[in-house]
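Ops channel
N.P.: pipeline sanity check, posting one input/output pair.
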């Protein structure tokens, strides 16, 4: 009995266990015997960002790098007799500077009208070429054009001559800080006194509204406000009076405000396409929109004041009204059409020969020749930057207005010329 009971109990227990196993999906399984807890595996370290290696920026390239005459494209083909008179004028302006005495002295020993080959031999024997280079090491830059406008005007205000060209006003201050801050030796601040303070001088719009004391400073009155505006951009020009007399007008001073492009303004306003924003395009827009001319011109706060240039010595050509000899540039000598350029004198010594390799206006036709750095301009900034002087009058204006080319430059300096590390002169 007892054995049977045990047998039945065992059978019942086995059946119970089997039933439990069958219900395992719904009932919890017996807990396993406790065992020692293991430390969890450490989490992987997060990937640290790899910081870029900080390298110091390379120093800017020197603005003038030694080169060779073999680099100059078309050097052997340039007719150097066309630039010789301009070269001699530079020498006359530089003759008292030690670095130029020997090279200019030897130039004076050549024949009165030397051949192109003789001029080339003189330059190669007495000058060394330096490649103009941008701070980033590139050697291409912008080449624009300028000219000497010819306007119609009168000494007296009478229609249609109602737009004045002013001499500098008496309250315009020119502040030179080079004595206390030598690094500003190329800078001149303009302003006026207001109480005990020096404040910026009047803008173009304020001058046109009569806020500046310019009454009585009129040199001449002209008939076209757009032509007067472009005369300010060019810096000098000629005015033909009703009698036929020609006046030469030159740059005297400026109000100290930076130049702002009215062509860019017209493009931004949707008035002109970018390719139309040349001098001719702006003039055409102004003729078609006379009521908006003042609005347009006042977008440029810069204003230029002039002086009348007296007749000069015809033998030297300074201020002489001839077709061949242009207005005096910043060097103080007459510019030569097609052979004078404006440069940034911080990098290119004023008066130096420069070999320019660019193209004709709006074309791919090469324009490679020796020119003379005889002028400067407020918009001419950087080592590889030039403004090409095309001459006087309407045809020169058309060429200048279309010129916005890319070019390279080589500066010819006398052997032994002291070249500052920063290129400044």
């Amino acid at each position: 009995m007892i054995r049977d009971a045990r047998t039945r109990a065992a059978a019942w227990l086995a059946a119970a266990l089997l039933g439990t196993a069958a219900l395992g999906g719904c009932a919890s399984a017996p807990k396993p015997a406790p065992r020692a807890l293991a430390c969890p595996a450490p989490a992987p370290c997060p990937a640290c960002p790899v910081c870029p290696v900080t390298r110091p920026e390379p120093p800017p390239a020197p603005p003038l790098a030694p080169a060779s005459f073999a680099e100059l494209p078309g050097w052997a083909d340039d007719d150097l007799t066309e630039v010789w008179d301009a070269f001699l004028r530079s020498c006359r302006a530089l003759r008292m500077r030690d670095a130029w005495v020997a090279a200019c002295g030897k130039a004076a020993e050549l024949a009165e009208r030397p051949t192109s080959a003789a001029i080339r031999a003189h330059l190669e024997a007495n000058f060394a070429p330096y490649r103009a280079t941008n701070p980033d090491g590139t050697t291409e830059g912008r080449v624009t054009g300028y000219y000497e406008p010819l306007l119609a005007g009168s000494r007296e205000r009478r229609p249609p001559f109602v737009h004045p060209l002013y001499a500098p006003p008496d309250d315009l201050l020119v502040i030179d800080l080079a004595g206390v801050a030598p690094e500003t030796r190329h800078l001149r601040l303009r302003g006026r006194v207001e109480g005990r303070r020096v404040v910026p001088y009047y803008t173009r719009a304020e001058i046109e509204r009569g806020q500046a004391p310019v009454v009585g400073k009129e040199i001449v009155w002209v008939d076209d406000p757009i032509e007067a505006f472009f005369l300010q951009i060019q810096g000098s020009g000629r005015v033909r009076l009703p009698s036929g007399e020609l006046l030469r007008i030159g740059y005297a001073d400026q109000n100290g405000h930076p130049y702002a492009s009215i062509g860019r303004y017209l493009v931004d306003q949707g008035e002109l396409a970018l390719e139309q924003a040349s001098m001719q395009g702006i003039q055409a827009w102004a003729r078609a929109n006379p009521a908006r001319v003042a609005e347009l011109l006042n977008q440029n706060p810069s204003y230029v004041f002039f002086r009348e240039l007296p007749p000069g010595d015809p033998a030297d050509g300074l201020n002489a009204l001839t077709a061949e000899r242009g207005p005096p540039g910043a060097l103080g000598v007459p510019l030569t059409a097609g052979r004078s350029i404006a440069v940034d004198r911080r990098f290119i010594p004023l008066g130096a020969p420069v070999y320019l390799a660019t193209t004709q206006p709006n074309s791919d036709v090469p324009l490679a020749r020796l020119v003379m750095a005889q002028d400067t301009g407020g918009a001419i900034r950087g080592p590889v930057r030039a403004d090409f002087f095309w001459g006087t009058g309407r045809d020169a204006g058309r060429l200048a207005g279309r010129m916005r080319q890319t070019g390279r430059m080589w500066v010819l300096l006398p052997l032994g010329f002291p070249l500052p590390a920063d290129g400044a002169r």
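N.P.: looks fine end to end. The longest helix spans residues 2-22.
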